[in-house]
Amino acid sequence: MNSSNNIVTGNITSGKHISFWIDSVENPGSFNKPDKNYNTDVVIVGGGIAGLTTAYCLLKSGKQVIVVEDGYIGSGETGRTTAHLVNALDDRYYDLERIFGEKNTKLIAKSHSEAIDFVEQTIKEENIQCDFKRVNGYLFLHPSDKIETLEKELEAAKRAGINVSRMAEVPGMKNESSVVILFPDQAQFHPMKYILGLAVAIEKKGGLIFTGTHAKEIDETGIITDDGIRIKAKHIVVATNSPVNNKVVMHLKQYAYRTYVIGATVKKGTLPQALWWDTGDQEKDIPPYHYVRTHPFDDNNDLLICGGEDHATGLADSENIKEEDRYALLENWARLHFPIGEVIYKWSGQVMEPMDSLAYIGRNPMDAENVFIITGDSGNGMTHGTIAGNLITNLINGKENELEKIYSPSRFKFFKSGMTFLKEFVGGLAAYLKTYPRDADAVTLSSIKTGEAEIVELNKKKHGAYRDAYNKLHVVSAECTHLQCIIKWNNDEKSWDCPCHGSRFTYQGKVINGPANKNLEYYDE
After folding, report:
1. Please, which of 174, 223, 405, 506 could form a disulfide with 215 given CB 3.0 to 4.6 Å?
2. Across-strand partners of 187?
3. How far apart are alpha carbons 525 and 522 in whole angstroms?
4. DSSP string covering 81-129, please?
């Protein structure tokens, strides 16, 4: 796989590092581009699990569907996940109960359980070979946490209707012997194999998929691509992780986090196939946590996939830990708890964290009734994306769904959850602004060394400049095309990231994460 081309174009994946999922499939998820205008029932923007599940469900309901993706299938966050299929959510059930109430929390738990069932059934129906397996999940204490956390979660999860139980130690882990909650009947799979299988099923059912196709304009009538192709539709669904058709409203209710992953060899048969999570670092307002699973790798080894060390996008420096240094922290933690060998993969992903911990699925606020968004994965993108497919299909077909109000993008739970949101996000952003590149006018292009990047002032405007391994200089406008915040260099994934709302761009300025929907201006040498 041509890694250097991947970095420049962002077609295969949104960063320098190639995930295990992308590296282990032969088909890169490339389809044709449209060469004429179209009319359809539904156009879906985004070719990840949310977009493709929605397309699949709509096709089964009798709708005509077209999917457009500006990269390849899975080039966004679906190809960079760790692919836990769970009703053991990133956010505690006792918090969900406080925010949404006991009755709605039961529905939330039910929706994630049914999402796992849907994936399993779809795999059987469409004969998708994607290493799906039901496994146990284990939630255990972070050293900074108290046993009361698990006791509260155990009771809240039971009230939510989940068949949880208490154990005295964590199966498969070393240096860990404490109370743990067993979440049975969770699942894992290979996300790229699954969505590529969905893509095959979509085409068989008459759906159209176009890749390398950027939706430059999106409104209630459909989309217009960069090439001027018009796709008219009765309904529009934007499933781009962060909605590129919503300029402000949704970005006041969620924010972007970077999360890091390593893949390390572990001798076959050493560990049970399972999912593991700790309760997170309680010294932080939104506790970053570790999440672990295994996956078959070769004849002698499984791959232990361990994630964590999260931080707000573009704000790694506020914790004085660079992006590229977080893999070593993950490796140290994993070696303490699991018998891992060589680390052979590392990558990072982006999580949209909603103010109240739950995805936003439904009609786009302050927009026409026929425009829908799917966002706010909250670290559970595999199940939230699956929930979205069924919910959006019901909404488009005018069918009542008990989840509509719960997941509505118009909801606003500030008084129950907003103070933590503000403290975490605004606190980090304030730290960034203290180190705002006020000395950009003192930086010269000639002073930038190979492999380094700086914000520089040229003609009284700020620019981002990166000198690559071949000593070639790449210069972009430093103002994010979303709301003009100044971008920050991510040396780990070799991208320009926006600390305000999480937009990301390649070093040649191509947008690879929303909410920005327009490239940075690029100046070649």
Report:
1. 223
2. 85, 134
3. 10
4. S--EE-SS-SS-HHHHHHHH-HHHHHHHHHHHHHHHHHHHHHHHHHT--
Angle 105-111-114 (CA atoms, 0-180°, nearest 5)?
140
| Start-to-end C-alpha separation, the chain | 27
Name 511's bridge partners: 505
CA distance linking residue 115 with residue 121, whole number of Å: 10
- Amino acid code (one letter) for 460: K
- Other beta carbons within 10 angstroms of residue 166's beta carbon come to 11
* CB count in 10 Å sphere of residue 299: 6
SS (H, E, C) 337-394: HCCCCCEEEEEEEEEEEECCCCCEEEECCCCCCCEEEEECCCCCHHHHHHHHHHHHHH
From residue 294, alpha-carbon distances to 61, 177, 209, 273 in Å are: 36, 20, 32, 6
Cβ neighbors of 464 (< 8 A, separation 6 or more) are 453, 454, 455, 456, 475, 476, 477, 478, 487, 489, 496, 520
Dist. CA 170–CA 183, nearest whole Å = 12
Q: At what angle do helices 147-159 and 102-126 cross, to 10 degrees?
A: 70
Q: Which of 102-106, 412-416, 424-428, 462-466 has the lowest mean pLDDT?
A: 424-428
CB-based contact 262:331 (threshold 8 Å):
yes
- Cβ atoms 238, 43 nearer than 8 A: no
Average pLDDT over the chain, rounded to whole? 91
Give the CA distances from residue 426 to residues 171, 348, 430, 435, in Å, rounded to whole numbers and listed in that order.
Answer: 39, 23, 6, 15
Task: Work out the pLDDT band at 7, boundaries 50, 70, 90.
Answer: low
What is the radius of gyration, based on Cα positions, of the chain? Answer: 22
Instruction: Output the pLDDT for position 168.
Output: 86
Token pair of 365 as six digits? 């606020």
